[in-house]
Design goal:
The complex is a heterodimer of chains A (97) and B (492). Helices cover 36% and strands 4% of the residues of chain A. Chain A has 97 residues and is mainly alpha-helical. A two-stranded antiparallel ribbon of chain A has the order 1-2. The longest helix of chain A has 18 residues, at 21-38. Chain A is flat. The two termini of chain A are 42 Å apart. Chain B is α/β, with parallel strands linked by helices. Chain B has a single domain (1-492), classed as Amidase signature (AS) domain (Amidase signature (AS) enzymes, Alpha-Beta Complex), CATH 3.90.1300. In chain B, 38% of the residues lie in helices and 12% in strands. Chain B is built from 16 helices and eleven strands. Chain B has an eleven-stranded mixed beta sheet, with helices on both faces. In chain B, helix 2 (23-36) packs antiparallel against helix 3, helix 5 (160-168) runs parallel beside helix 6 and helix 9 (309-324) crosses helix 12. Chain B is globular. Classes of the chains: A mainly alpha (97), B alpha/beta (492). Chains A and B meet through helix 1, helix 2 and helix 3 of A and helix 9, helix 10, helix 11 and helix 12 of B.
Amino acid sequence: MPVDIATVKQVAYLARLKVPDSDLEKVAEELDSLCEWAEHLKQVNTDGVEPLTSVLDKDMPLIYRQDEVSDGNKQEELMKCAKVSADGFYVVPRMVE
Amino acid sequence: MTDLVELTIAQATEGLKKGEFSAVELAKAHIEEMEKAKHLNAYITETPDIALEMAAKSDERIKKGEAGELEGIPVGMKDLYCTNGVMTTAASHILEGFIPFYESTVSQKLWDAGAVLMGKTNLDEFAMGSGTITGYYGAAQNPWKRSNDDSVLVPGGSSGGSAAAVSAGLCMAATGTDTGGSIRQPASFCGVTGIKPTYGRCSRYGIIAFASSLDQAGPMARDVKDTALMLKIMAGFDNKDSTSAQIAVPDYLQALGGDLKGKVVGIPKEYRPNGINPDVIKMWDEGIKWLKDAGAEVVEISLPNTEYALTVYHVIASAECSSNLARYDGVRFGIRAEGNTLDEMYANTRMEGFGKEVRRRILVGTYILGSSRYEDYFLKAQKVRRLIVNDFNEAFKKVDFLLTPAAPSTAVREDEMRSQDPITVFLNDAFVCPASLAGLPAMVVPAALSSDGLPLGLQIIGKPFGEEMVFKAASIIEQAANFNRKPHRVEA
């Protein structure tokens, strides 16, 4: 099933990428060709196979550390990385009128 | 003094210790070489002032007898590692001007051992690419040229800036990251040595994330010994990365040399696809012979799901990258575009900040993770990934390590790679990608020159946390291959 333009628009919205209208067709083609390429995975019999999310999943459980404060008080440094900030807050476009 | 750029780390350490030259002189020689090689675009940000300052401190420590294991050694840092006070871009416009106020664990370990920062090396944007051609700061160039034509070749990618810098003598060693072959494929293209250690061997803290289940840090250098020393310093458990392994780091230098008596080498038959460069096959056959000469038994094995690896990789890496890159929103760091609403500001910032290839992968990943495709593509890929891991597990019941070529070809022309569709570009990573999916340690060592004079690398794939075996095999191949490891310097 080829990807339609409405789907591309929805994907672009979810990805928060402003894809120009003139590129929508091209993105649809790219998604199509990826799907076509990925089709051959369907040949593989994966009945009863657990999806692998991490190579560490069985033998090496993730380590828990003590739940204690090890860092902090970096507001000033963090704010320096932001393009727009005021009084120690990030500034974004107005959301509520 | 410019010959200083031709030394290995081991040789330079010796010279520094004996007082034949100072760390400052060593840094200066590399800075001069970097000046001559600007056109390679190996570095996004050069840090000569920092280098000289660090080198001066190294000289003091050497005088006091407090030298670390990498004291005074000029190192290039892939611009995916956050470096305190030094702009870190991931070769992306979206991070332009981002100056971290913290240091990645791996780079900190290198500084603690006395290494000297020469600069931040070029890469594909967010490490997404196979040629170091997709970045905002332009393509890096391979210092090597074909013997019969002068066209510009890619250094491979995504750690192509690091590979080019090591190859051209612009640093003695460099860091890379490897998600689907990004250390090993450029090492092969540029005639240097590089290892992607086992997933979990190095901390990923402070390394800008691409695909978190695959990303791993590793070193690149001009010989096996230097690479082993670099990894020894870089590796180890880190409280700040829950996926880093609580396993002691062996002294890899002790593993080098000797013979392979009693060891079994697996030769995967699926690594001989149609259309492979005959020079690659010739080198592989020669490599097999060298290992036999060292006493190893060689057996053919099968990794039946190899043909699905690139697809699985692309599906998983795209999905993970679309999640990881959601953090670039124009609010907390990097550039910001205007927008009337919050969503509009996000969408405009991300459209302006990300390059074409990164946008493509984010869209693909978002699409795959959507409810209608999740099961057919993402879950399916994760299941096939397990089968690929199982293939390796089966093989390692019979063999101690695997030997394969690093890449199906030599370095590709830059204009050629630019005109290829993304799937064709991926084919460069066909041999390096499966070990990434399985999280296995894998190393590339230059082994031969092609008929047109370009380097070709062999890959050794080891068992999980079996880096010592990998280094041992690599050192034996290195010795037998007798590859000219002198830097491929830019002529003055």
